[in-house]
Amino acid sequence: MTDNDPAPELTTEPAPGTAPGRDGPERTCILSGRKDGRDALIRLALGPDGQVAPDVRAKAPGRGAWIGVPRAELDQAIAKGRLAKALARAFKQAVKVPADLGSQIEQALERAALDRLGLEARAGQLLTGSERIADAARKGTVALLLHAADAAADGSRRLDQALRVGTDQEGSGVGGLVIPATRAILSMALGRENVVHIGLIAPAAAARVNQALGRWRGFIGLDG
Asked: What is the mean pLDDT of residues 35-47?
């Protein structure tokens, strides 16, 4: 898409707080033109003063537009003025794009993912502690295995192997997902000591965490 291309039409959005359905309307990335569900894109909210801000939970009132590009591409679009032009066309008014919008989005996605982990921990949907996770993984009751960014390689490999045993996938490359956060940050998020590995034991909880982590990892370029 070039600066002279017409802006993709903004999809009419449901009221803030309305639960999105898988069969709901697709959103369009105003930079790439890619269409996808709201869970795969990031909403940018327009304030009354024309200031643009991230709305990663898609709950802010007022008008919004959607982006579906990684941070490196977004930062380039901001620096070259492409994002401001695309938003101005979409909203039909001048907008103010903060230079650190990429950083704001990354921090918001991190916060959303860690908040989700904290909620699942309080609901008793996850395990911590290598031995507990390894035992559950070998029994096939770990739906999602996570490793801290600074987890020791040998410890992660041992748990990955336990996961493969429990899911009858020995010899494959199946393993845990690396969270772009250190054990200190994870420990604070979960309110527990020395959280290096996490095992989600409920499929629904695993899906919620995987979605939140996928958005964060994808935006900072760890996926895809």
From this structure: 93
